[in-house]
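Lay summary. Proteins are chains of building blocks that fold into shapes, and those shapes determine what they do. In this project we predict the shape from the chain. Here is one chain we studied, written as its sequence of building blocks.
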Amino acid sequence: MNLKLVRIDDRFIHGQVAVAWTKFLDINQIIVANDEVANDEFQKTLMEMAKPPNVQVDILSISETIEKINADFFKNKNIILLVDSPGDILKMVNGGVDIKKVNIGGMRHKEGRKQITRTVALNNEDKETFKKLANLGIELELRAIPTDSKINFMKLLGG
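And here is the predicted shape, written in a compact code that computers can read:
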């Protein structure tokens, strides 16, 4: 298994992921790890429709994702792992998933969140979780598509 990209993006599979990242990284497997989406047949159908041809999509709960990755279920796959929050990344790391770098693509504005960049809005819990991830040695970058310049996400947060 080769985790080519671990990305926080609350839109999950959309143009940036389906076109730019999958081609750039030669992806043949997308994992959407989200408890809510894993239990919503309509959202699962939409994700399947949005995937690029010749790319397998698995939509799993966080615990199922941890189990399958740790069991090497995705052997010989080039993978994009998509989640919608830094908390889900921390759960995976605490569950034994080896994550060295996280790409922050988009976290839309919701009540209680403050806009940090054009595409990212965070609440205090999100900020604290990003700090925990950084303290674990995980590189955090902000970048929409592969040709964009990498931006050190912790510098945006003042850390």
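What the prediction tells us: The chain has a mean pLDDT of 94.
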